[in-house]
Amino acid sequence: MTSPATPTRALLACAVAHGVGGGLGWSSLPPLLPRVARELGISHGMGGVAWGAASLGIALAAPVGGALVDRLGPRRVAGAALILGALACAARALAVGPWSLAAAMLAFGVHVGLCSPAIPKLLAAHLPPSRVARANGLALLAYTLGSASMLLFAAPLAERLGGFRPLTLVIAACVGLAAIAWLSLARDRAAIGRAHGAPLRTFLALTRHRGLRLVAVMHFLLFGSYLAALGVLPRALVDGGMPPARVGTALAAWLCAAAIANALGPWLSDRLGTRRLFFVAGPTLAALALFALALSPSRLGLLLVAAVGGGAVAPLLLSLPLELPGVGAARIGAALGLLVLVGQLGGAVLPIAAGALAPFGTGAPLGLLALLHLLIVLPALRLGEPRGGGPETTVAATDPDPAMMV
After folding, report:
1. Which of 64, 110, 336, 367 is at 20 to 30 A from 344, Cα to Cα?
2. Angle at which helices 29-40 and 44-72 cross, to 10°
3. Within this chain, do residues 185 and 207 fall inside the same structural domain, yes or no?
4. 97: CATH
5. Which of the two residues, 362 and 82, has the higher pLDDT score?
6. What is the DSSP letter of 400?
7. Which of 125, 115, 103 is nearest to 178 (CA)?
8. What is the mean pLDDT of residues 38-44?
């Protein structure tokens, strides 16, 4: 007998997919890269190629995943994606060289690209639009906590288990269990609607949507800055005088502060009835903290403030397409596919830009991160409050509104 669909089950399914499929599966590799490089005999540069292959897989799969989610429903698409993610983790554990490792990470990236649009789609099927941002923040909290746990415990666990391979096989099993949990908990609902017409036509139409393009620019800057910070902060904290043994704990605290903001930001935004205030205040707060951190890189408090500023905004951006006229619940998958694709481009470009400034001292990359957060305010001001009426809006699944196209 099929279990009934409930908002609680949908939220739990999304939290499991985010926390295990993304948080554990994706975030376990960076802290293990030195060990992986030693055990496979690959250079640091080739390790970076393997890590970058995941982003390539996400960028390639996200538009396809969005279209499939809109046409087939989130349950089947994300269920198959999580199974692929489990197999990709197992292949990572069995890698024998840099290219087999890169192929496994590419496949894992495809899993993330297919799964990411399904999560807001499932939440939108079971919750009114006024509650989707809060639920998405809670699901994203699971991802951030999963990432923090890997940052703290991946290396010690690999040491205890005898290498990165046993640990990665354990993670593969966890992702497989997450696939079973998703298929058991998630239920598609006809009320959400399905997109009709050619997927490519729908995707191209959404690229002309003015509001969605502004949201995409904001996501490019925010997500790209997050990935750049993962590369910049360890060196900046050490150069600022923090003992190397404390850096991992400091970064985990940064992620935990962001996780709390993931959950509380959307809730507070809904209570105040505004999105624009958060899209302006959050990045500005993060920028000021990062500018101060550039002058005093070892101050953990400033790092936590920056995490709160950016963390409060991230789940709002990923649920905002529901509140934009001309997008709607039926096309949220395609819209999220576009945002994930653009975010991955930011994740490829902005860390390179931050790394290029490293020879000028640790203050220069941190200053760039601060500037990138300030730039988020510009499209936010142009976007204004969602014209559909803010977080209480119910958006119909209609064709894209020609008035919103540019």
Report:
1. 367
2. 130
3. no
4. 1.20.1250.20
5. 82
6. P
7. 115
8. 79
Q: How far apart are CA 163 and CA 50, in angstroms?
A: 18
pLDDT at 399 over 50: no
Which amino acid, one-letter code, is at 203? F
Q: Which amino acid is at 267?
A: W
Q: Is residue 2 part of a domain?
A: no
> Is 92:175 a contact under the CB 8 Å cutoff?
no
> How many domains does one find in the chain?
2
Encoding tokens for residue 266?
A: 């959307």
Using alpha carbons, select from 275, 297, 292 the residue that is nearest to residue 373.
292
Environment class of residue 349 by beta-carbon count within 10 Å: exposed (0-12), middle (13-18) or buried (19+)?
middle
Place of tokens 């960028």: 59
Place of tokens 């399905």: 194
Q: Does residue 257 share a domain with residue 341? A: yes
Question: Which DSSP letter does residue 23 get?
Answer: I
- What does the block give as tokens for 161? 């288990």
pLDDT on residue 200: 62
User: Which pTM value belongs to this model?
Assistant: 0.81
The boundaries of the domain holding residue 166 are 9-189
Q: Which of 165, 189, 213 is the last residue of a domain?
A: 189
The three-class DSSP label of residue 117 is: coil
Show the DSSP H helices in 196-243 as ranges.
199-207, 210-239
145 and 277 part of one domain: no
Mean pLDDT, residues 25-29 taken together: 84
Whether residues 234 and 339 share a domain: the answer is yes
Task: Count CB neighbours of 237 within 10 A.
Answer: 25
Q: Which residues contact 396 (CB under 8 A, 6 or more apart)?
A: 328
Question: Per the structure block, which two tokens stand in for 132?
Answer: 């989707």
Same domain, 258 and 373: yes
Distance, in Å, from the CA atom of 362 to the CA atom of 369, rounded to the nearest integer, reads: 11
Co-location of 292 and 400 in the same domain: yes
Structural domain contains residue 67: yes
Contact (Cβ atoms closer than 8 angstroms) between residue 281 and residue 313? no
Tell whether 48 and 148 lie within a shared domain.
yes
Residues 225 and 181 both lie in one domain: no
